[in-house]
Amino acid sequence: MIKFENENALEDCICQMIDDDGVNPINGAKVFYYERQVQLGSYCIADIICLEEVVYFGNRVGFYITVIELKNEILKPIDLGQLSRYLTALQNTEEGLLSQEFCTRGILLTKKLTNKNACDPDLYYLLNLDLNDIEMYEFTLDPNSGVEFNKSGGWHKTEDKKMKLEEFGNKSFEIALDAAEKEMEVQ
User: Fold this and answer.
1) Residue 148 sits in which domain range?
2) What are the tens digits of pLDDT across the range 133-160?
3) Smaller CB count within 10 Å for the chain: N or C?
4) What is the CATH number of the domain that holds 57?
5) How big is the CA angle at 89 (ends 86 and 94), to the nearest 5 degrees?
6) pLDDT tens digit sequence for 64-102
C-alpha cells in the first residue's frame, strides 16, 4: 500500500487542498479559516484546526471548530484520547468560545486498513458511538487518482448471526421487553 512519507506530508496535502478549494477535503465542509500545529497550552499541539460552516437545509446556522488529528499509521486507542484532549481544551476556553453558533467536532484521520485485524477492534466499535462529535475517516493514496477520504464506521461482526433482542441477557430481560411492548400498545 502506498502511504505518505510522514504525517507532515499528509498535513501538507490536506492544507493545500483547503487552500485550493476553500473546502475541507475530508468532510466537504466550507472552511473560513484554518491553522496548522495549533498550540493548545498544556493540552499539547493539534495538527489542524478549522473554522467550518454549519449548513441545514441550505442555510448557515453556525460554525464548527473542527480539530483534525492525522495518523499516517494504524489507529491506536491513545489517538482517540489525544483528539478528545484537544476538544476539551477548546471547550474550556476562558473567552466562552463555544455558544450556540460555535460547536466543536473532531476528525480522526487514519490510513485505510487493508487487514481489519491489524488494529484494536474495540477502538473501532467505540467510534460507532456518538462521542462528542468525533468522526473517523480513512484515507487511501493512489498513484493515478490521488488521495481519497471516506468516513469509517458501522463496524460489526460479519461472521456472527444477528441476535434478537430477547436473546440478550437472561429470561428477566425477555420479560421486561414483553412488558415494555405491552405498555407501548396501551399508549
Assistant:
1) 7-161
2) 788 788 887 777 788 888 876 554 455 4
3) C
4) 3.40.1350.10
5) 160
6) 889 999 988 877 888 888 998 988 888 776 555 555 557
Amino acid code (one letter) for 38: V
Q: How far is CA 183 from CA 102, 126, 176, 180, 187, in A?
A: 41, 32, 10, 5, 7
In a domain, 186, yes or no: no
In a domain, 170, yes or no: no
- 92-114 b/e with 16+ CB inside 10 Å = b? eeeeeeeeeeebbbbbbbbbeee
157/154 Cα distance (integer angstroms):
10
pTM over 0.70: yes
Q: Say what the pLDDT of residue 49 is.
A: 92
Number of separate domains in the chain? 1
What is the pairing mode between strands 146-151 and 134-142?
antiparallel
Task: Answer whether 83's CB lies under 8 Å from 71's CB.
Answer: no
> Computed from CA positions of residues 161, 162, 167, 168, in that sequence, does the dihedral angle turn out positive or negative?
positive
DSSP state of 116: G
Q: Which helix (H) or strand (E) holds 50?
A: strand 45-56
Q: Residue 178 domain-assigned? A: no
Q: Which three cell numbers stand for residue 115?
A: 487487514
Kind and range of the H or E run holding 169: none
